[in-house]
Amino acid sequence: MAGRVVREEVIAPEPAEALANLLDTDVPVAVLPPMWHWVYLLERRPSADLGPDGHPTSGVPAPPGPGLKRMFAGGRVTTTHPLRIGEPATRVSWVSRTSEKVGRSGPLTFLTLRTEISQGGQVAIVEESDLVYRAAGATSPPGGAPVAEPAAGPRLRLAVDEAFLFRFSALTYNAHRIHYDLGWARAEGYAGLVVHGPLQALMMAEFAGRYGAGLVGRTFGYRLVAPMVGTQTLTVLPGPEGAVAGARVVDTAGRLTAQSDVSSGNVTGNPSHHA
Fold first, then answer.
1. Running DSSP on this structure, what letter comes out for residue 66?
2. Torsion over CA: 38, 43, 44, 47 (sign)
3. Which of 30, 100, 144, 268 lies 20 to 30 A from 71 at CA?
4. 269 lies in some domain
């Protein structure tokens, strides 16, 4: 299939064990929790394919131009049924949309990567990931707005340091140097190592699973609103009205860095473009 990447592998128990131990949670036995597919069916490119920043310079998705910085902006994931451990699954990915706009950091190219994961002949997960590419000289967006932590209600905390970021990068086969190379992160305009956007989304999904109705049969949408930088205690809070399904992530200083929503609809293809 032209312009598409197809991968097939067995959903082995070891990556799930590794992620569970990283998050200090129970190791799944029969099925993967929603969003845990991010440690499976990965594109494991040769080192020769990587650019100076650690991202592949070609393939799906490929940078729209030389020297552009890539940011993970958000996405939507519909989980029809969880992936079963011990059985093969197939992932098909392709670029479904691109667009141009101007944001606070200058010209931006938005790219949406569409992914479908099937198991046993049925589509189990449909996902759209929104990526943003900006000029190398542009500065990073400022920190998010402060959020008052509610006095009561559920919350989920995660201590994130350099070793944690390194381990999550390794689990997701993410070589982007802003997550483990402090000098490179500063060269890209960040004050410290950058906490992965997918990690923040994963923790909001965990929050929905532990304190809400879960994500199977629903669509989980997430948006990264500001970088989370440096050693952190990442905190997941309920939404502004106390809704578990509309979780928010704040950093140690109480600044909003990510937010999510859960709906009964399917991924249809309207990205939340932002910078």
1. T
2. negative
3. 268
4. no
Question: How large is the greatest C-alpha to C-alpha distance in the chain, in angstroms?
Answer: 53
Rounded to whole angstroms, how far apart are CA atoms 25 and 183?
Answer: 32
In which domain, by residue range, is 27 found?
4-263
* DSSP bridge partners of 168: none
273: in domain: no
Query: How far, in Å, CA of 225 to CA of 168, rounded?
Result: 21
Number of domains in the chain: 1
pTM score:
0.90
Spatial neighbors of 183 by CB under 8 A, at least 6 apart, are none
CATH of the domain at 94: 3.10.129.10
Spell out where 104-239 has E strands. 106-119, 122-134, 156-160, 218-224, 232-237
What confidence tens digit (pLDDT) does each residue in 142-167 have? 567 788 777 778 999 999 999 999 99
Q: Is 272 among the domain residues?
A: no
